[in-house]
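S.,

Sequence below, as promised.
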Amino acid sequence: MYSAISIYKTIRLTLALALSMTLTACLQQENQINKETKKTEKRINYPTASVQFINPEYEISIPAELRPYEQVAVFAKVSGFVKKLYVDRGDHVRKGQLLAVLEAPEMNQRYLSDKATEQKIYSDYLFARQAYDRLKDASTTSGAIAAIELERAKSNVESARAAFESSRAGASHTSQLQQYLRITAPFDGVITERSVSIGALAGSSSNQSLFTIAQGNKLRLTLSLPEKHAASVQQVVRANFTVSSQPGKIFKTTLSRTSGLLDQHDRSLILEFDVDNTSGELQGGDYAQVKLMLKRNKPSTWVPKKSILTNQSGTFIFILDNQEIKRIPIKEGVYLDTLTEIFGQVSAGSQIILKPSEEIKEGKISK
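The prediction came back faster than expected:
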């Protein structure tokens, strides 16, 4: 009986030892797995790509407006009543062509008066000149003419000549004013508006223009280029544009001039393209959509779009350098396909993490 109890205790002790050894082995295996897991987590490999330092040509699309190359409102320089009108809205005119005639009877009377005064003063001048010439001839005989009489005659000639020049200038001025009664076209174009009728008062006492003329055979394509693209304007900039009135048709032109300075209101650079419209296909005043080919003056830094992280605190990229992660604040520039231009403390050839996230922390990566 005693022997059986001893055997039973021995078996129980053996089982307990075996169970303890098994549990110890399991715990050791679990600790080893945890260590390997942590080690694996520290060895995370981030996919990277090299920062590019390039100078590509890129395309942007901007709204623009087609305007007449020249457009003016024609006013009368002198006051008068409209006597005749020779053109109307829609008429094509040539430079110097007569558009209208004004009448101002008082101006004609003034011209006749000024012309008569000029003739009288001219006669006085001729008389003074003849008197001086006679005295001068007589002075050749010693003692015949006193020197002071000759000087007085010469002074009269100079005064008469000055009076004649003044009267002639006055008559010329009145004559010129009469020419302003004839309204002519300042350049080749089309009459876009006629604002008066026969008998209407026109001129300096009226703020009403007579006509509006626009040059339609040549147009200006004008657009405002955003500030971030201003440094990409080269001497030769190609542009393709479309207008809503002719869907699907593409027109081509090249840059003619720029404003040179940014507009202080909207921080943009004004670009102008001269467009030949001899065929009359386009109309001044149309809105256009322009595609420009631009290029920086020198290479800049570009990274894949997906490598940029934007949050409430700003825009960043992550650089992986010698197993150390650095978070670099940047500003975005222009876009090209899958690439984005950036500005910041980034060197060409640096390795940038392609899939940034808030969980990525700065610092060394354990090996």
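The radius of gyration is 47 Å.

Coffee later?
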